[in-house]
Design goal:
This protein is of the alpha+beta class. It is built from 6 helices and 7 strands; from the N terminus they run H-H-E-H-E-E-E-E-E-E-H-H-H. The protein has a 7-stranded mixed beta sheet with strand order 2-1-7-3-4-5-6. A hairpin with a 5-residue loop joins strand 5 and strand 6.
Length: 143
Amino acid sequence: MKTHTDVSSSRRKQRRAHFSAPSHIRRRLMSSHLSKDLRKKYNVRALPIKRGDEVLIVKGKYKASKGKVTSVYRKKWVIHIEKITRMKANGASQQIPIQPSNVVIIKPQLSKDRRELLERKATGGKLQKGKGEKHTAETTKKN
């Protein structure tokens, strides 16, 4: 059943919106999970991937490989990781494109903006929106 009036439930429209998304939306869509220890530390599950993050590949042919993200190719929905390359027939090396959903961030590059994002995501917007104040444990108890 459709719950949100502003968002289509049509598969065709969802795919069109996804694949024709502008760059600033693709940034958010190209997120990766944090490792388990970082998830506990920051109380955040995922972050948009950024150049300079150290990642661990968890799926695919290059599973268990670590490396730094050298580029985030938003147009093709992939990232490139240093040392994950293959040799072409003419001897040149070519970077292998990896899906951001197949990696886990093990060491994020923390800038001022990224720290603010982590703090904001950790609170979950509860402080700003006033969520969680309507019902308490006492009001929900059945008599």
